[in-house]
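REQUEST ID: PR-0412
SUBMITTED BY: lab tech R.K.
PRIORITY: routine
TASK: structure prediction, single protein chain
INPUT:
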Amino acid sequence: MKRDITERLLAARKAGRPVALVTDLGTGLQTLVYEDAVHGGFGLEDDLLEEVRDRLRQDRSGLVGDPEDEEDGIQLFVQTHNPPLRLLVVGAVHIAQALAPLAALTGYAVTVIDPRGSFATESRFPGISLHDSWPDEALSALTIDNRTAVVTLTHDPKLDDPALLVALRSPAFYVGSLGSKRTHAKRLERLKEQGVTDAELARIHAPVGLDIGAVTPAEIALSVMAQITAVRRKAGAA
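STATUS: complete
OUTPUT:
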C-alpha cells in the first residue's frame, strides 16, 4: 500500500469517516472511495462506483467484478472501513433494558439517555454507556451521523419531543418513537407547531417497531431492533 493511501486511510478512520479501500487484483493499484469523493491509483465506472459505495453503506467487504467478463475483465477487492453503528435510546425504561443488550449483540454502540438519575443507573444497564443530560442536549453533544439510530421511549413529551426535534434534523438513518397511533397523532401536532415539516415528520417510525404482535418489553425490543435492521438493510420496514 502506498504511503499516501495509508495516511489517508488512517486519517479517515481516526475522523470516523466511512471509506472503502479498493484494490484492483489484476494490477495491484489501490483507490480510496468515500461517500463523496474518490482518491487513488485508478478511477471507477459509475456502476462499479455505486456498487462499492453500496457495500460501504452496508459494511460488506468482498469481491466486485468478473475477471472473465470479455469487455472489462476487472476484479476488485473492496475492504470497508466504517465507524461503529450507534443506537441512542432516550428513556431508561424497561424496554430500554431489553433493547440495549440486544442492540449491542447486533453490533451497535449503545447509549441510553435519561436525566432521571434513578432510571439511568449502572445496575439497571450494566456495561452500557449512560448520559444524564436532557435528551436534546445529549443528542447534540453526541453528533448524530448517518450510522446512528435514535429511539425515544419515555412517553413523556418533555423528554421525547426535544429529542425528536434534534433527531429529525440530523442524518440519523432511523428515528423511532414509542406510543400508540393516538399518542403519535398528538405528537405530530405538537412537532408541527414547533416548525417540523411534513417530510421530517414522515421519518418517524411510530408506533415504533415491526408489527409482530409484541406485548412484553423484550418482545417490543425485538420488534424495534428488527425494524432498525430492516431500514438499514433497506428491506420492507413499514
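NOTES: The longest strand covers residues 19-24.
REVIEWED BY: pending
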